[in-house]
Amino acid sequence: MASKRSDVRPKVSVQSSAGTGCRYITQKNRRNTPGRLELRKYDPIVRRHVVFKEIR
C-alpha cells in the first residue's frame, strides 16, 4: 500500500534560482503537476523570497 502512495506523491528537491545552492525537499502530486515544479520560497542566504525550481 505504501508503494502506491509514493508513486502518486514523490519527494522532489527544489533549488534556489538565486544561485545560492539552497534546497528544500517537498512532495508533489504527479497527476496534477506532471511538469517541473516552481515555488516561491524563502532563501535564507539572500534573505528574501525567490523562485525555487525542481531538480532531478
TrEMBL record:
GO process annotations (BP): translation
PROSITE patterns named among the record's database cross-references: PROKAR_LIPOPROTEIN, RIBOSOMAL_L33
GO cellular component, as recorded: cytosolic large ribosomal subunit
Biased composition (Basic and acidic residues): 1-10
Region feature (Disordered): 1-22
HAMAP family linked to this entry: Ribosomal_bL33 (MF_00294)
Designated name of the protein: Large ribosomal subunit protein bL33
Organism of origin: Dermacoccus abyssi
Upper lineage: Bacteria, Bacillati, Actinomycetota, Actinomycetes, Micrococcales
